[in-house]
Amino acid sequence: MLDELGQKIVQELQADARQSYREIGRKLRVSEGTVRNRVRVMLNTNTIKISAIPNPVQLGLDFMCIMGIEAKVGTVESVEERLVKCPNVYYLCGCTGDMDIIGIFLFHGPSEFDDFVKNEIAGIPEIIRTRTFVVMHISRSPWENNLDIGALCRG
Question: Least CB-packed of 4, 36, 86, 149 within 10 Å?
Answer without folding.
Answer: 4
